[in-house]
Amino acid sequence: MASTTNLSADARQYLLITGNYWAFTLTDGALRMLVVLHFHQLGYSALAIAMLFVFYELFGVITNLVGGYLGARIGLNRTMQLGLALQVIALLALTVPSALLTVPWVMAAQALSGIAKDLNKMSAKSSIKLLLPDNAQGTLYKYVALLTGSKNALKGVGFFIGALLLGWVGFAGAMQLMAGVLALVGLASMLLLKRDLGKAKAKPKFSELFSKSRAINQLSAARLCLFAARDCWFVVALPVFLAEQLGWNHWQTGTFLACWIIGYGVIQGLAPLVTGKAKGRVPDGATAMGWALLLAGVTAAIAAAVQLEWQLTLAVVGGLLLFGAVFAINSSLHSYLIVSLARADGVSLDVGFYYMANAAGRLLGTLLSGYLYQTAGLGAALWAATALLATTALISITLPRRTAPLQPAQGTLNDD
Prior knowledge:
This protein has helices at 2-5, 9-41, 46-51, 54-74, 76-93, 103-130, 137-168, 170-192, 214-234, 237-244, 250-274, 285-307, 312-341, 347-376, 378-396. The protein is mainly alpha-helical and 416 residues long. Helix 4 (54-74) runs antiparallel to helix 14. It starts with a helix and ends in a 20-residue tail after the last helix. Residues 1-6 and 403-416 have low confidence and may be disordered.
């Protein structure tokens, strides 16, 4: 308690934002696993279950665009609280009796959850920019990587919590419990976060939603292709392949993917050490291009092994582990670059636009994953992912390069 009291006001705000984001992420991961397992028990196919999440991704596209505008007008603390409130409503909507849990009802609840998740994420990522001075780029990279990595690790933990709650209190009971916890987190957020955090000095016009700098547009396009490439084979094709071709049951598949996401999050948090921050370097467009090319090469190797049916279990499982490690670095690099390139005044507009592209990539990847696997198999999905990653690298060629050396950071979150 004493150490928390000695922290600067900005450090305490960072801890509040991170705690809020962590609590939300745990429920988000648990909700996804609860829906997958519950509807699997009801006899839904893997593809049908995946389609329950289409609105989750679709509304994320809209939310990130409009949410950035709202954040600039009313403040990031309010958009964060709105995200928590909508998640509570989505969870409570799923407490109805099983007979009423129809596909349209669940898709509507997932749409609310998707809106909530992207409001919360946009608010958290944007807020960090405002808690650090412009010359603290190394510290900014470290804190963005920690927030991003911890989020994904906790999402994997949420998978386990979802499975545990389903067996302990049942589907409806799990929803009620998570809604209660999030309501308490929302109350604390309302009382303790700065009221004007992220509010632009000049009220942005709605037309400014698409008025982005060249660098923001390029990075957003690269992000769209990056996440479309991941989900193109990861969301539907991979789980169904593990079940149909390798004979894994849903517990083996769920546990493996949960562990993968936790490891992926840990590596994201360590990305600054891997990419040279310890030597005083922070990433730029050249760094992003190099890591995208490496990821394209890894994906092409997995695709070739699957196409040739060479050691399928080793190729897919081992390949996924390597893919996850390299993808984690790519994702962390992008997350830092958008926060670094965004304008300080109205930062949520740029970050929201970028995460709109992120959500569009996930939606495109989800649809491609189901279609390509059903029509041509896992190999086709992997080759499509390779093409998307090659496009990511090509776009990254035009991203800004860092020409000036880093200046010593002042007033960072570590300061008293």
